[in-house]
């Protein structure tokens, strides 16, 4: 398969997002504010700890977790579900299905472009300012490598998950409510806002097995040095399982619904 035609969608996705400069500035500003609020909140929480540890985290480990979570959430934050649902709602998907390009591959490379935009343009300024505000983190080659491997699996998992989410536009007239509920649920269960270690043990065990934790919590914990050895291998196995499971399920869902999509699209 020739990649050149699909790489154009990656470039076009980035260019489209950068075209709306006001939106770019607001997204950057919003991410900076959210990151700083979380950092100062956690710093205040740790200031009240007599031992310097809260639920097994030191302040440095929490800073590393927070910044890695922000980076991971942005780096996997593509827009596959928005593109698919918009095309289904508008009916343009019928035309796109008739083109000599694999639809799912096209969506993947567009999703990749949005992820690169979010990871570099939106999150990088927030990370730099958070570091300037005192959120210093330790790093090592092993931790960076672990973070990179886990983040790659997170990206694949997130794409298949978002692809399936976009297909819900076939089954419901309006996807706005579905997407908003999903954003709240995934943000809570993924550990993006609060590390799973702060939940009750029974809830932590269940949440750790769900795909949401594999998207953000696992790479963030790996970067913070909270996952190593057998624990890291086990977390990667869970991530790999969900990548395969959602890849198979999304493929089945697509094949089952593609005829109906083309009919709805005209």
What layout of secondary structure does this protein have?
Blueprint: H1 4-19, H2 21-47, E1 53-54, E2 57-58, H3 59-75, H4 80-90, H5 93-98, H6 103-132, H7 141-167, H8 176-189, H9 201-209, H10 211-215, H11 217-223, H12 229-264
Helix pairs in contact: 1-6, 2-3, 2-6, 3-6, 3-11, 4-7, 7-11, 7-12
Would you mind describing this structure in some detail?
It is a single chain. It contains twelve helices and two strands; from the N terminus they run ααββαααααααααα. It has 266 residues and is mostly helical. It has one domain. Strands 1-2 form a two-stranded antiparallel ribbon. The longest helix is centred in the C-terminal third of the chain and has 36 residues, at 229-264. The two termini are 29 Å apart.
Q: Tags for this entry?
A:
mainly alpha; 12 helices; globular; 266 residues
Structural class: mainly alpha
The end-to-end span amounts to 29 Å
Give the overall form. globular
| Low-pLDDT stretches | none
Q: Major sheet: order of its strands?
A: 1-2
Classify the helix fraction into a percent range: over 70%
* Percentage of residues in DSSP E strands: under 5%
Work out the helix count: 12
Task: Report on the biggest sheet.
Answer: 2 strands, antiparallel
Radius of gyration (Å): 19 Å
The multimeric state of the shown protein is: single chain
Strand tally, please? Answer: 2
Secondary-structure element series: HHEEHHHHHHHHHH
- Average the pLDDT over all residues and give the rounded result: 87
Q: What is the total number of structural domains?
A: 1
